[in-house]
From TrEMBL:
Species of origin: Flavivirga rizhaonensis
Protein's recorded name: Toxin-antitoxin system YwqK family antitoxin
PANTHER family: HISTONE-LYSINE N-METHYLTRANSFERASE SETD7
Pfam families for this protein: MORN_2 (PF07661)
GO biological process per UniProt: heterochromatin organization
InterPro entries: MORN_2
Record-level GO cellular component terms: chromosome
Cited SUPFAM superfamilies: Histone H3 K4-specific methyltransferase SET7/9 N-terminal domain
Sample GO molecular function, one term: chromatin binding
First and last residue of the signal peptide: 1-19
Keywords, comma-separated and alphabetical: Signal
Length: 232
């Protein structure tokens, strides 16, 4: 009987001491140590992580309340030196949806998005320090082949954008300038044969557009203000 009582006392002291180390503040009123919070009016865990005198450090885990159970939805890995964190977002079954770096609430650097039914890439993109897309952005087919390749400058499409078939055949190319369609465009069939070409000027077709069939010019259309449709 005495052994049982002693065991219960030890267990109580251990649990009390452990609970005392959760959700604590330092002498300046800043969060310090392990913190865990639950969804309002529930015992379902909402997040857990560690603070160092008010600054998040290490890995924080965030959950959704699904059928009164915590389901991991994201992790954020903090460090002590700045506000940047490495973030992973998860599907309800635990699969990683996307991952990359955030600076506060801004996406920065490289971000990866994954196919719904595999761990292969769906999208690969880059963000500048302002949180705007910058540099090349790729979209992939489930087989790993590039589906789209575009270039961004400070959040706006700029340069050549190219679309591909699953067999790596170019299907179309556009030219963007400062976020607008502006320049030469070409369209191809699944065999890679040119079927149409022309220019855009500030998002609108402009000048002579040419249309091909079996490699031969079949039609032309003049999209200049004074132009008239001309059929070959």
């Amino acid at each position: 009987m005495k052994k049982v009582i002693v065991s219960l006392i030890v267990l109580f002291v251990f649990n009390f001491g452990f609970s005392q180390n959760i959700n604590q503040f330092d002498e300046y009123g800043k969060r310090h140590g392990i913190w865990k919070k639950t969804f309002k009016n529930t015992n379902v865990l909402r997040y857990e992580g560690e603070f160092l005198h008010g600054k998040e450090i290490g890995v924080f885990k965030f959950y959704k309340n699904i059928r009164k159970k915590p389901v991991l939805t994201a992790t954020r890995t903090f460090n002590e030196n700045d506000n940047k964190t490495y973030v992973k977002f998860f599907a309800t079954r635990g699969k990683v949806i996307s991952e990359g770096t955030m600076d506060g609430k801004l996406y920065t650097g490289e971000w990866k998005y994954y196919q719904k039914n595999s761990d292969k890439l769906l999208t690969l993109e880059h963000y500048n320090d302002k949180g705007n897309l910058d540099g090349e952005r790729f979209v992939y087919y489930p087989n790993g082949q590039i589906a789209e390749k575009q270039n961004y400058v400070d959040g706006k499409l700029d340069g050549v954008s190219t679309w591909y078939s699953t067999n790596n055949v170019v299907l179309k190319t556009y030219v963007y300038v400062d976020g607008e369609l502006h320049g030469e465009s070409k369209f191809y069939n699944s065999k890679g044969e040119l079927i149409a070409e022309g220019r855009y000027k500030h998002e609108k077709k402009h000048g002579i557009w040419k249309y091909y069939e079996n490699g031969k010019l079949k039609d032309e259309k003049n999209f200049s203000p004074e132009g008239k449709y001309k059929k070959k």
